[in-house]
Automatic annotation (TrEMBL):
Residues 217-237 are annotated as: Disordered. Residues 78-109 form a coiled coil. It comes from Prauserella sediminis. Residues 227-237 have a biased composition (Gly residues). The keyword RNA-binding does not apply. Keywords: Cell cycle, Cell division, Coiled coil. Signal peptide: none annotated. This is Cell division septum initiation protein DivIVA. GO terms for biological process: cell division.
Amino acid sequence: MYRVFEALDELVTIVEEARGVPMTSSCVVPRGDALELLDDIREALPTEVDDAQDVLDKRDEIVQTARTEADTAISNANEQAERTVSEANAEAERLVSEARARAEQLVTDAQAEAERTVSAGQAEYHDLTERARTESERMVQAGRDAYDRSVEEGRAEQARLVAQTEVVQAAHGEASRIVDEAHAEADKQRGDCDAYVDGKLAEFSELLSTTLRTVDSGRNHLRGSGSYNGSGGSGYNGSGSGSYTSGAGGRGFYDFQSH
């Protein structure tokens, strides 16, 4: 490529130094030297010039081929993108469906567990109440029996003492003491019975409150995770309080209020 520029420089020098023709802008150039330099230039031109000409000649074909390949690549890319988006949507729907099914299963399990816990608590409540009532009736009956025995013993002793004229006054005093002791014993047993029943019912009230707090905690956990919105479901929600009231004759009842 260097020879091309060198020959062009020499050709320019020949033209610049050529003798001019009077009255014209022409000049006399040594034909032989000029042709020799032009031959050198022709021979020195690289074959890349011919290749470049071939490229220019085939430009339209190359551009069309490139456009076709570009359109094909774009079409393939669009198809791949659509296929990828479709697969992603299908996978997302599958994951959402599985998550929804899992959430529904968890809610169902939680409801079943809550119902089982409440049912167990109610059964325990009825059992404890029945046992407390039975024990209360037994202790009240025992108190009554003791009271009756004491009264009968007092009356018998009173009758015996009354039969003895010399100790009539002493008999009255002893009879009164025995009767008072019988009343005191009956009152003591009645109070013990009430305290026993109240203690048992207090224990059960604590157990039931703990159970209900556990159920509420599970439900709040489900609401906090966003999996269960509470619609269409069933369960037990509330807090309980109760009080024991002593009735006539030593019997009592427990009033349980649910809120």
